[in-house]
Amino acid sequence: MNQVQEMLRLKDAGKAIQAVERLSCLFNLMSRQPGFLRSEVFRNIDSPDTLLVLHAWENLDAWQTFQHSEEKVAFSASRPAALYEFVPCGMNWTSSHEEDDKGGRYMRREVIRPSTVEPGPRRGEQVKASQTFTYADDELADYRGRILRLTRQRDAERANANADAAVDELYESLLRTTVAEPEVAATIRA
């Protein structure tokens, strides 16, 4: 599975709803593409002007085919410059297994430095699902060899900090789309 991760910084935190509406249109385009699995938008709990956009594909080729499609190129060209800017965060991550995605209102995102022991998924009472990925691109040297761990949680707790984590952030879900149909989280606030 290929997990695409994009980070957006809103130029005005009050325009989160407009950004989510725009991303919903993008997700609609994605959902019609072969190999698309799901997509989701999250807002950073500590920095409400930062959105994390995740979309999962069966493989890297499926994502790249969509990325270079006429629809995606036209959509990207129509982005209002005053809405958001992209923040480098390491785009393509791969996983050799697909864990059952049980939802969860919160997502904990950890980017973990290489160590002697590869981190596995998180477990615990608050964990709904957890999955690890390896960085699949060469574009950002800072991410080479790093592990991305995404953990769906029931609440906004950040217990059990990882000393090897270069990044440990918590996000709240705003919009979720699967191949079947979109779900808009009830938590969208300006």
Please tell me about this protein's structure.
With 190 residues, this protein is an alpha+beta fold. 17% of the residues lie in helices and 38% in strands. It has helices at 16-31, 60-67, 70-77, and strands spanning 2-10, 36-44, 50-57, 84-87, 92-94, 106-112, 127-135, 147-153, 165-178, 182-184. Strands 1-3-2-9-6-8-7-5 form an eight-stranded antiparallel barrel. The longest helix is centred in the first third of the chain and has 16 residues, at 16-31. It is globular and about 45 Å long. The N and C termini lie far apart (33 Å). Mean pLDDT is 84; it is low at 181-190.
Nearest-integer average pLDDT: 84
Q: Which structural category do the helix and sheet elements fall into?
A: alpha+beta
Q: What fraction of the residues are assigned to beta strands by DSSP?
A: 35-45%
Helices and strands, in order, run as EHEEHHEEEEEEE
Number of strands: 10
Stretches with pLDDT under 50, minimum 5 residues: 181-190
Largest sheet: 8 strands, antiparallel, barrel
Spatial extent as radius of gyration: 16 Å
How large is the count of helical segments? Answer: 3
> Helical residue percent?
10-25%
Strand order of the main beta sheet, please? 1-3-2-9-6-8-7-5
Gap from first CA to last CA: 33 Å
Q: What's the shape?
A: globular
What are the main properties of this structure?
globular, 10 strands, disordered C terminus, 190 residues, eight-stranded antiparallel beta barrel, alpha+beta
